[in-house]
Amino acid sequence: MGEAVADVTDHRLQPLIALGRSYIQWAVEDPAVARLVFRAGATGPDSVVTPHPLEVPGAELDRFAAAGALPATARPGAEFTVWAALHGLAVLLVDGLGHTDDERAAGLQAERLVRAVLTGPAQEETPSAGRPALGSAHTRRLAGPQPGPAPATPGRR
């Protein structure tokens, strides 16, 4: 099934791959600004970042799912997985914990991440039992007022 998904989806992945490459390129080309942005803390429910980092991969994943290249059951929350992987690579490269030979190699790693991250969800026929929903201040803001306190984040007080 993985090969069939790869054949059908390769051209449909290009916008998401381009997004990943651009994000990594931006972080590597201007690490001082990337560090500032990464640590800015604009994550509270009242902070407004437009477009929010989740909206761009989310829109691409919506198109991907609408085209039948990603099962509808695998779509919810997939933008967090893509964002976490790309942001993780960006932080590793910016902080010097990860290295590539050049900008092209960094872009290829971004492409590899996008493909790898979507391989698992593309093969999910049904969500695994008890899979927790992942959210952020941004997704809570979009959902509107919710009763009770905001959900806790492990490791944060």
Structural class: mainly alpha
| Span of the ends, CA to CA | 43 Å
What overall form do the CA principal axes indicate?
globular
- Mean of residue pLDDT? 76
* SSE order: HHHHHH
Question: Helicity range of the residues?
Answer: 55-70%
Q: Would you identify the regions where 5 or more consecutive residues have pLDDT less than 50?
A: 1-9
What portion of the residues fall into strands of 2 or more residues? under 5%
Number of helices: 6
> How is the biggest beta sheet arranged?
none
Cα gyration radius (Å): 17 Å
Number of strands: 0
Overview of the structural elements:
The chain has 157 residues and is mainly α. The protein has 6 helices and no strands. It has helices at 2-29, 31-38, 55-66, 78-94, 103-123, 137-143. The radius of gyration is 17 Å and the shape is globular.
Please give a handful of descriptors for the protein shown.
single chain; mainly alpha; globular; disordered N terminus
Question: Quick recap of the structure?
Answer:
This protein is 59% helix and 0% strand. It has six helices and no strands.
SSE topology sketch:
Blueprint: H1 2-29, H2 31-38, H3 55-66, H4 78-94, H5 103-123, H6 137-143
Helix pairs in contact: 1-2, 1-3, 1-4, 1-5, 3-4, 4-5
